[in-house]
Specification:
- By secondary structure, the protein is an alpha/beta fold.
- It has 9 helices and 9 strands.
- It has helices spanning 22-35, 46-63, 109-123, 142-156, 171-185, 209-212, 222-232, 267-279, 302-316; strands at 9-10, 69-76, 79-86, 91-99, 125-130, 164-169, 193-197, 256-261, 284-289.
- It has a 9-stranded mixed sheet, with helices on both faces.
- The longest helix has 18 residues, at 46-63.
- The protein is globular.
Length: 318
């Protein structure tokens, strides 16, 4: 049967679900806002950044599902990693490699646990997360080198490249795209599919949504993004494809799913990525939830459940 790829989808508020109270919603937003604080890591505020990183472990415990998966931390050399494995419907022949977000300056296994566990439950696949080195202590290309190490580890375990779904949120979406570009440049086989949550694709911050949604976005600010990009690549030309995959040659990329919230300043990073994929002839699906924010599938929301169901449909459909 011929596969049909939808060019774009928008989803309204979930029906038939009890709406969250305003107090609960604001509490969740405050928690994620703390993770994405504009603590100016580029200015050397490492003490504040350390507190921010530690808070992500708490966030992971609060927002991760409590049942339906196992969490198995281990180390590969000096790099912390963890498997999220589903307790039911286990497919041992496919795997997800997940790149966590955090602006390249924060993020850890505790933070990764949230979406890794949800991906595991939704797909029935094992999900491998890895704690890549962070800026400003370890600027570009340290994170990409660690992503390549994680990829090579899966290949050594015997997975075929096409058996791997590569996923990432926010800066992790940037890292996932850069990993594919690196594999492509090396002439290596590429992952079977890409799943991106609110990916940061343009470090030059040139999209119109940066100003159009400045008052709507409850999570991110331009100040924060400019700070973390300076920490990640202090000498960077923000438009070079090695930093901003939006401007790269995306031909031969795997089928890609992009999900984002309509209220985020990174909205154009998703919509413009879709245009670039279209121009490269890459099958892709763009899904927008108009009233949602940055990486909303992390939260215990009806819309997040809907988003994960869409991910499962995309991943499990050949």
């Amino acid at each position: 049967m011929k596969k049909t790829w939808f060019t774009g989808q928008r989803f309204s508020e979930a029906k038939g679900e009890s709406p969250l109270t305003e107090k609960t919603t604001q509490a969740m937003l405050a928690a994620l806002k703390a993770v994405h604080s504009a603590s100016a890591p580029a200015d050397g505020d490492l003490e504040g950044l350390a507190r921010q990183r530690q808070s992500q472990n708490v966030l992971g415990r609060l927002f991760s599902p409590q049942l339906g998966f196992t969490w198995e931390p281990f180390s590969l050399g000096e790099m912390p990693m963890a498997w999220a494995r589903p307790e039911c419907g286990h497919d041992r022949y496919h795997v997800v490699l997940y790149c966590h977000g955090g602006g390249y300056t924060s993020g850890n296994l505790g933070y990764a646990r949230i979406l890794a566990s949800k991906l595991s439950q939704a797909t029935g696949y094992d999900v491998l997360s890895f704690e890549y080195r962070l800026a400003p202590e370890h600027p570009y290309p340290a994170a990409l080198e660690d992503a390549l190490t994680a990829w090579n580890y899966l290949m050594e375990l015997g997975y075929g490249a096409r058996d791997v779904v590569l996923a990432g949120d926010s800066a992790g979406g940037n890292l996932a795209l850069e990993l594919v570009l690196s594999l492509k440049k090396a002439g290596r086989r590429l992952p079977g599919k890409l799943v991106l949550y609110s990916p940061w694709t343009d470090l030059s911050c040139s999209g119109a949504s940066y100003s159009e949604h400045e008052q709507d976005d409850p999570i991110l600010t331009r100040t924060y993004l400019e700070s973390v990009r300076q920490a990640y690549a202090p000498q960077g030309d923000w438009e070079q494809p090695e930093l901003s995959p939006l401007f790269a040659d995306l031909s031969e990329f795997p089928p890609t799913l992009i999900q984002y919230g309509g209220h985020e300043i990174l909205a154009d990073d998703s919509t413009r990525l879709k245009k670039s994929l279209d121009q490269a002839g890459v099958p892709n699906v763009l899904q927008c939830w108009p009233n949602m924010w940055h990486v909303f599938p992390m939260f215990p929301l009806p819309q997040a459940q809907q988003a994960m169901e869409r991910v499962a449909l995309f991943v499990l459909t050949s």
